[in-house]
Design goal:
Radius of gyration: 15 Å
Strand content: 15-25%
CATH class: Alpha Beta
Largest sheet: 5 strands, mixed
Strand order of the largest sheet: 2-1-3-4-5
CATH architecture: Alpha-Beta Complex
Low-confidence stretches: none
CATH topology: Maf protein
Number of strands: 5
Shape: globular
Helix content: 40-55%
Distance between the termini: 28 Å
Mean pLDDT: 97
Number of domains: 1
């Protein structure tokens, strides 16, 4: 179910995580679990992947990840602040996890605006003992292309964090 490019990245990430003794977790909105799915498509990934939380609705973000309702109201679900809170929430809630990635965005085809266009994805990466990294990217293409590009970007960021 995953293509070769994603499979290669997932394999490299799992190997790097094993070599460093790090456990991974995800908090996903616009990708609906595709990052965790890419990692767990690889046999033996259970020694590295702790789990993933798909928090598509704001209520799920609040209940499962502890995202502040006030932050959601003030800046919206598609924001750097929420991506960071999602990553930190997963880090705090998933047992024995060392490193988490979170994504929230607008995969389309609808739902975009001038301020938040279709293709906008915010990322949060949390690692114990470090400040949460936040970044965003606007990806092009249809819903599938945007989600695929988000998965690749997330896997690459996790791999880069491994050094």
């Amino acid at each position: 179910m995953i293509d070769t490019e994603i499979e290669v990245l997932a394999l490299k990430l799992l190997e790097a995580s094993r070599a460093r003794g790090l456990k991974l977790g995800t908090a996903e909105s616009c990708t609906g679990g595709m990052i965790a799915g890419a990692l767990t498509a690889i046999a033996g990934s259970s020694d590295v992947v702790v789990g993933g939380l798909v928090t598509y609705s704001n209520d799920a973000k609040i209940a499962l990840l502890g995202v502040s309702p006030l932050v959601l109201e003030e800046v919206g679900a598609v924001s750097a602040e929420v991506a960071g809170a999602m990553a930190e929430g997963a880090l705090a809630r998933l047992p024995d996890v060392d490193l988490t990635i979170a994504v929230t965005g607008i995969a389309g085809p609808g739902g975009g605006s001038a301020e938040k266009p279709v293709g906008l994805v915010h990322f949060g990466l949390a690692l114990w003992g470090r400040e949460t990294a936040l970044w965003s990217h606007v990806f092009a293409g249809d819903r599938n292309a945007i989600r695929r590009a988000t998965v690749i970007c997330a896997l690459e960021a996790l791999l880069k964090t491994m050094g």
